[in-house]
Amino acid sequence: MNTSLDPRINRLDLKKIEEGEIITNSHLITWEVFHQEKRGKQAVHCGIVHAPSPDLALLLAKEQFARRGKTANLWVVKTSDVFTFKLEDEDIFETVPEKTFRDPGFYKVRDRIEKYRLENHLS
Q1: d(CA 10, CA 54)
Q2: What pLDDT shows up at residue 79?
Q3: Looking at the whole model, is its pTM more than 0.70?
Q4: Domain range for residue 71?
């Protein structure tokens, strides 16, 4: 087995792949990749990779999505483990008319507050 000079690659037990514990010629699993640019920021979906194991999916995600931009962390999740509502159920997200007070646009004083801030040089 060739060894890498990159300690991040050496953390993965790639020897398992060569020894046959992980079958690489089997059906590849689709993994959703989420990228975190900096600690404390939310993770954003950036794409998918196809791999037989979570370790290999992380490695492929690193090579594909963390090469160019700043990266604090990556997450990979099996696509089959992501659940969503059916498109026909979109009406459950509609806002009830009597709860418009929850929307920031409901409050009309926002313009006056901004005008006051500008006039008084407040940040």
Answers
A1: 16
A2: 93
A3: no
A4: 7-119
pLDDT surpassing 70 at residue 123: no
Given 3-state DSSP classes, what are the helix, strand and coil percentages for the chain, each rounded to the nearest 5?
Answer: 40, 20, 40
Q: What are residue 54's phi and psi, to 5 degrees?
A: -65, -40
Look at residue 2 and tell me if it is in a domain: no
Single out the residue of 37, 40, 41 nearest to residue 73, CA to CA.
Answer: 37
| DSSP summary character for residue 95 | P
Q: For residues 46 and 83, what is the distance between their CA atoms, to the nearest angstrom?
A: 18
pLDDT of residue 103: 65
> Can you list the alpha helix ranges (DSSP code H) found in the chain?
7-10, 15-19, 54-65, 110-119
19: confidence class by pLDDT, cuts 50, 70, 90:
low
In the chain, how many domains are there?
A: 1
CATH number at 59 reads: 3.10.20.520
pLDDT at 62: 93
- Whether 81 is covered by a domain: the verdict is yes
